[in-house]
Design brief:
The complex is a heterodimer of chains A (248) and B (231). Chain A is α+β, with helices and mostly antiparallel strands and 248 residues long. Chain A is built from four helices and four strands; from the N terminus they run ααβαβββα. Classes of the chains: A alpha+beta (248), B mainly alpha (231).
Chain lengths: 248, 231
């Protein structure tokens, strides 16, 4: 008989044992080694992919940071340029203002100096003219002038009034030259016309020059070349230098 | 003339007996286990593998690829069964060139046992994958009238599997023996070489057909309208 059933069963059992043994000692280790290598390679690839993704992410983040830094740098540069421009404009305006102020100060100073010079020059001219006139008058004057002064004083005293004076003051007549008796009498008579009871006191002061000064209490009346020339000088200076140049 | 090595009984105790088929089967198993021990002795799982391991893994990877293409399923669960079928048959057939060795695959008992294993493995894998109820339901689809035909088909293909291997191996051995008796030496050697080729091809055919039957069990289920479960 071609088939022996015991052999069939034995061979089936043998084959199953062989399957188990080969699975245990041949296929299992080989497949296990292959699977472990595959898993290791896949892990490596996954790790490489993860690292690549991380690197790409880092690269993108760095790019973003770089872009942000570029933007911040540009903003800072723009801000700095704006501030520099603003500072430059402010400095320019400030410099211009200072220069303008200096220029105005200088012009003012120049104008002041010019005005002062003009005032001084005019004053000198007036003073020279007055002095020249005074000397000319002093040299040319004589008794006639002195008499004219006394006559003028007498004439003015006759029109003078002491209504605002509380009491009759003491009269003092001071002259730069010696008065004659007639002149003293005329002056005394004129003063008496003002209501004075006492005789006036006559004094001679050569420093006064050609002139008559009458003091009535706190009133002072003067008719002298010095006063005329002083008034001439003040009038000339006021005419030449508006604003009080003649108050020197 | 002795057709099957089953006839040579070396030891017998009642129903049990030790014949040449079993003895040479043990020899083949011993050789395969020895090969397995040597082959897997220095396996490495890192990237620095030697040429021998590289060859082994290439063969195993080739087997896995073949099984994957045939069954359209993840091949690793089938590798021990189908790979052992192929290795056992091919070693047994190749050793037939060794004088005095009678291949166990030249025994109808062996091929029947292997076919029976396939006969059990096909529904075993199918039931493990899709469940007993669904697998048995496939026998009555599309109509219960198909049940006897399906059963006959299952039995007949297993019978064909066993007979094909047995017939080829046995006939090769017989032809070589006959030619050795009636022709010069050279011609039987050529026929032995041809038988060697035939033996390898038969091992490949047996394993491939077993894979096809296992995969066919899944295809039947697929035609029933369920989603594919081949992954």
């Amino acid at each position: 008989m071609l088939i022996d059933w015991f052999t069939v069963g034995a061979q089936a059992l043998n084959f199953l044992i062989l399957v188990y043994l080969l699975k245990r000692f041949l296929y299992g280790p080989i497949v296990k080694a292959m699977r472990e290598r595959k898993e290791r390679i896949e892990d490596s690839l996954a790790q490489a992919r993860a690292e690549r993704a991380a690197a790409e992410s880092l690269s993108r983040r760095l790019e973003d940071d770089r872009a942000a830094l570029d933007a911040a740098r540009e903003a800072l540069l723009a801000e700095a340029r704006r501030e520099v421009e603003q500072y430059r404009l402010e400095a320019r305006d400030k410099a211009r203002g200072e220069v303008e102020e200096l220029r105005r100060a200088w012009e003012k100073h120049l104008a002041d100096e010019q005005a002062a010079f003009e005032r001084e020059f005019q004053t000198l001219v007036v003073d020279a003219a007055v002095d020249l006139s005074r000397r000319a008058v002093a040299e040319l004057s004589g008794e006639r002038f002195e008499s004219a002064l006394v006559e003028t004083a007498v004439k003015k005293l006759r029109t003078y009034s002491l209504e605002d004076h509380p009491a009759a003051p003491e009269a003092v007549v001071r002259t730069g030259f010696a008065l004659g008796p007639e002149q003293k009498a005329a002056l005394a008579e004129a003063l008496a016309g003002l209501g004075l009871e006492d005789e006036p006191l006559f004094q001679v002061d050569p420093a006064l020059g050609p002139g008559v000064v009458v003091r009535l209490g706190d009133h002072r009346l003067e008719w002298s070349f010095a006063r005329y020339f002083t008034e001439l000088r003040e009038t000339s200076l006021n005419a030449l230098i508006p604003g009080g140049g003649g108050r020197q | 003339m002795r057709i099957s090595p089953d006839a040579v009984v070396l030891w017998q105790w009642g129903f049990a007996q030790l014949n040449l088929t079993i003895l040479f089967t043990w020899l083949v198993m011993a050789l395969l286990l020895l090969f397995a021990f040597i082959a897997t002795r220095r396996l490495r799982s890192d990237e620095h593998l030697d040429h021998w391991q590289n060859l082994l893994e290439a063969i195993v990877e080739g087997m896995l690829t073949q099984i994957r293409e045939i069954t359209q399923a993840e091949p690793e669960p089938f590798l021990p069964f189908l790979g052992s079928l192929f290795l056992f048959i091919v070693v047994a057939n190749v050793l037939s060139v060794v004088p005095g060795f009678e291949p166990p695959t030249g025994s109808l008992s062996t091929t029947a046992a292997l076919a029976a294993c396939v006969f059990v493995a096909v529904p075993g894998y199918g039931i493990a994958r899709i469940g007993l109820t669904d697998y048995l339901r496939n026998y009555i689809r599309p109509s219960p009238l198909m049940l006897p035909f399906t059963v006959i088909g299952e039995l007949s293909r297993i019978l064909a599997l066993a007979m094909r291997l047995f017939g080829n191996v046995m006939s090769g051995t017989m032809i070589a023996a006959v030619l050795l008796a009636v022709t010069p030496l050279l011609f039987p050697v050529v026929m032995q070489l041809l038988g060697l080729l035939t033996g390898v091809v038969q091992a490949y055919i047996f394993a491939v057909l077993a894979a096809v039957y296992i995969g066919a069990g899944f295809e039947i289920q697929d035609r029933s309208g369920r989603p594919e479960t081949t992954t």
